[in-house]
Design goal:
The chain has helices at about 15-25, 40-45, 60-65, 100-110, 120-135, 135-140, 150-155, 170-175, 205-215, 220-230, and strands at about 5-10, 30-35, 55, 75-90, 110-115, 145, 165-170, 180-185, 190-200. Helix 1 (about 15-25) packs across helix 9 (about 205-215). About 40% of the residues lie in helices and about 25% in strands. With about 230 residues, the chain is of the alpha/beta class. The longest helix has 15 residues, at about 15-25. The chain has ten helices and nine strands. Strands 1, 2, 3, 4, 5, 6, 7, 8 and 9 form a nine-stranded mixed sheet that branches. The chain starts with a strand and ends with a helix. Helix 1 links the parallel strand 1 and strand 2.
């Protein structure tokens, strides 16, 4: 079966999955590819990994366009995603209205599940927030760092810790069974990231990639994006 290959941040995995059937009905193509930390996905493209379509942060996709790896005219916004807190379904949700609340919640957790703190959008932000709150050293031994947010959230769901918590993109939290979205980060620590899609300059199937971008960003699927965790 012919496929459109994508390299995407984990934040868009649920949306791509939700549109796969509509895309196949429209084009006859399946979707294949990789989802993970946006920095890792960008580096895969730079290293020559075949791809028709990229779904990454707005800033990173613009950088790849400047490097002539993505066609600038193809780029379209998909939607904004908040970085948020997650808890296991069986645990009470946490209320975090201020940075002082967030500091206390993170201090009281005995395991903190996060994506790659160097290559992922949410992971980099978590590292920054821990420094900002003055607790990076205090909680360092409790950080459970995984290659991407989806893996971190699956590990949170099966955690045997007493008071675990997770932090990653809202879309990755919503897409994971066994955990619940507990709310966004508070003012001063919040992060909302625009994700965009673009066609690789060496795409094998640029026409079909363009059709997938239209589905990802189109008004017809605004409600699907909202349910999956995109803020618009």
């Amino acid at each position: 079966m012919t496929t459109v290959n994508i390299l995407s941040g984990g934040a868009a995995q649920g949306l791509v999955r939700g549109l796969a059937e509509a895309f196949k009905a429209q084009t006859g193509f399946d979707i294949d590819g990789e989802f993970g930390a946006v920095g890792v996905m960008a580096d895969k493209l730079r290293a020559g990994t075949p791809a028709d379509l990229l779904i990454l942060t707005q800033a990173l996709l613009a950088k790849l366009a400047a490097e002539k790896l993505v066609t600038p005219s193809s780029i379209a916004d998909v939607g904004r995603v908040e970085t948020a807190l997650a808890v296991r379904n069986r645990d009470p949700k946490v209320t975090v209205r201020t940075e002082a609340d967030l500091r206390e919640v993170l201090r009281s957790a005995d395991a903190i599940y996060v994506p790659d703190t160097k290559a992922s959008t949410a992971g980099q932000h978590v590292a920054k927030v821990l420094d900002q709150l003055g607790i990076a050293y205090e909680v360092a031994s409790r950080l459970k760092i995984f290659p991407n947010g989806a893996t971190a959230m699956r590990e949170l769901a099966s955690s045997t810790a007493t008071r675990p918590i997770g932090c990653t993109q809202a879309t990755e939290i919503i897409a994971t069974d066994g955990i619940a979205l507990s709310g966004p980060l508070p003012p001063g620590s919040e992060l909302t990231t625009m994700y965009t899609a673009g066609i690789a300059t060496k795409a094998t199937y640029p026409k079909e990639a363009a059709a997938l971008i239209a589905l990802l960003s189109g008004a017809d699927h605004r409600e699907l994006r909202r349910r999956i965790g995109f803020a618009g």
